[in-house]
Write a structure and sequence with these properties.
The chain has three helices and six strands, in the order αααββββββ. It has about 160 residues and is an alpha+beta fold. About 5% of the residues are buried. A hairpin with a 2-residue loop joins strand 5 and strand 6.
């Protein structure tokens, strides 16, 4: 009988120490600090930014190379500036319908053009393109609407 009790005590101690060690290992694996949360959040934000940038870059490339895609990704009436079609006293020009729109090419296709991204977040991108030495500028504002990008403002001053 004493042998049986001895084995039960040994088995109980063995189980107790085994469970305690497993608990310690789990506690080591579950340590969460503010630094680890911040690091993981930054990594996730960088991944999302990369996805959004890649997605917008694909949209932008297609917008400037496919005229049908371009016209279908413009919000009409489109407000902006077109110095070729405005009078001196005009402050805004509006393209009322698709038929009023003239296909635009990527300003980066031209020599001496510098394009700068003025605003960039997950729902709005504003780009300003201009001649290196002045005399012309071109501003486009793209907005993400219902998971798709659209041109929502266009300014062309020559």
């Amino acid at each position: 009988m004493k042998k049986k009790q001895f084995y039960i005590v040994v088995l109980a101690l063995f189980t107790l120490f085994s469970c305690n060690k497993a608990k310690q290992n789990n506690e080591k694996n579950l340590i969460i600090t503010e630094d680890s949360i911040t690091t993981n959040q930054v990594v996730v934000e960088e991944i999302i930014e990369e996805i959004n940038t890649t997605e917008f870059d694909s949209f932008r490339q297609k917008f400037y190379t496919d005229s049908l895609f371009q016209i279908n990704h413009i919000v009409f009436p489109l407000r902006g500036i077109d110095s070729n079609k405005m009078e001196m006293n005009d402050t805004i020009y509006t393209w009322q319908e698709k038929k009023d729109w003239e296909y635009i090419r990527d300003p980066n296709e031209y020599e001496d053009i510098i394009t700068t991204v003025i605003t960039k977040n997950d729902s709005i991108i504003v780009e300003l393109s201009h001649l290196e030495y002045g005399g012309f500028w071109h501003l486009v504002r793209f907005e993400r609407i219902n998971e798709n990008w659209f041109l929502t403002r266009f300014e062309f001053v020559f």
